[in-house]
Amino acid sequence: GTYGAAGLVFSLLLRVASLTSLIALLSPIQAALSFVAVASLSRTAMLWQWRTSQPARTDGLARSQSAPTSKSFVTAASIAGFFAIALLLPIFGPLGTTVPWLVSGLLIWGMCRMCERQIGGYTGDTLGAGQQIVETCLLICLSASAGALTL
After folding, report:
1. What is the rounded distance in angstroms from the CA atom of residue 51 to the CA atom of residue 68?
2. What separation in angstroms does the CA of 74 have from each of 70, 78, 86, 94?
3. Dihedral sign, Cα of residue 86, residue 15, residue 74, residue 52
């Protein structure tokens, strides 16, 4: 509907502004490494949401696919976390790396709780929306960190 379209446009504009800022403030290699780290972390957040919530419907596509096992989730999260730390820490330092993780973690946790209250769990759409929210949050936070580095 209208709110969904407005949300998509707003999200797209936020991501474009953040990406433009990162490209302007960082070297091309640093910007590319940041993009890779953000992509892996946002998809790991989606796996966390899938792993820790229940499906909202019994007949949806998200329900038909089994949630990641504990072992596969820990493996994926460990790999994504290791590479994200290795890529982001040298660029943004400890504070510029930790704050985006904490803020995006709180956002995905809050989204999971909201989905559980309002619709009873996750759907494929809420998994995708969670990934987009975390990606946008990480890009905004890293853009702010990059701006602070140039001061």
Report:
1. 6
2. 6, 6, 18, 23
3. positive
pLDDT tens readout for residues 67-110: 788 898 899 999 999 999 999 999 999 988 999 999 999 999 99
Strand-pairing partners, residue 55, are 122
Radius of gyration of the chain (CA): 16
Structure tokens given for 65: 């696919």
Q: Which of 150, 146, 120 is nearest to 33 (CA)?
A: 146
* Cα 101 to Cα 94: distance, rounded to the nearest angstrom: 11
Which pTM value belongs to this model?
Answer: 0.89
Among the listed residues 80, 79, 77, 96, the one whose alpha carbon sits nearest the alpha carbon of residue 30: 96
d(CA 62, CA 55): 7
Q: How far apart are CA 27 and CA 84, in angstroms?
A: 17
